[in-house]
Amino acid sequence: MAELVVALDFRDAGQALDMARTLRGVVPWMKVGLELFTAEGPRVICGLKELGFKIFLDLKFFDIPNTVQGAVRSAASLGVDMVSIHALGGERMARAAMDGCAEGVVSGQTPPLVLAVTMLTSMAAGDLPVEGAPEPSEMVLDLAVKAKQYGLNGVVCSGLEVERIKAACGSSFACLTPGIRPASAEAGDQRRVVTPGDAVRNGSDFLVVGRPVTRAERPEAVARAIIEEMDRAQ
Ligand code: C5P
Q1: Number of neighbouring beta carbons within 10 Å of residue 28
Q2: Confidence check: pLDDT of 187 > 90
Q3: Domain range holding 171?
Q4: Is 122 helix (H, G, I), strand (E, B) or coil?
Q5: 3-state SS record for 189-231
Q6: Does the beta carbon of 156 sit less than 6 angstroms from any atom of ligand 1?
Q7: In total, how many domains does the chain have?
Q8: Which of 34, 41, 61, 95 is the most buried (most CB within 10 A)?
Q9: CATH of the domain at 221
Q10: Per DSSP, what are the bridge partners of residue 4?
Q11: How far is the CA of 31 from the centre of ligand 1 (A)?
Q12: Does the pLDDT value for residue 226 go beyond 90?
């Protein structure tokens, strides 16, 4: 069963926790990203855990292996359920991330899933600032296969790429898809977008939705409608 993750891209913990309270009992996962974590740090994670949410700490770590190992260790010790690194960091960075995860996990708890960001869903063909860059779908598939070989738990990719990744990496290799837009919503800065129903039909395990929910007049109603669309597509 695919699960909904709401991206809490807010500038302070007050706004983020208010939104989380609105969505409590409807949405199982909250995503804390760069804006909120940079402003508020670990205390916002504690607040969300107290509300009973599963947490995806999406800081997209990308640094030398030793630094990423320490960062994932620290993230795991906060008790989060999922963290992200960049697939482009390569094998040594990926393996160091998994080591950090095992070192930091809170005793008695399941270690967080470590997912690799393949290519941002805001980027399309031509956006990669590299001469002769491969097509996004080819590059994403290649990075996903390597992420699996390096022992990571899954990838962050667009809903357009899930089917091929699952075929190549197996159904237990997790695919988390941002760039989700209900048919009536604006794409904004996102480029490789799909609807919630299509993401689920393609095999996505986790759907990340931010602004279509958090900027809605009635966020809870939009979240419920997305979950209904997901359920119909399972
Ligand atoms: O508001 P929106 O639904 O576009 O939010 C998508 C969220 O997913 C943002 O928090 C963004 O940082 C994140 N994300 C993404 N593309 C990726 C990885 C993460 O949009 N490849």
Answers
A1: 16
A2: no
A3: 3-233
A4: coil
A5: CCCCCECHHHHHHCCCCEEEECHHHHCCCCHHHHHHHHHHHHH
A6: yes
A7: 1
A8: 61
A9: 3.20.20.70
A10: 207
A11: 9
A12: yes
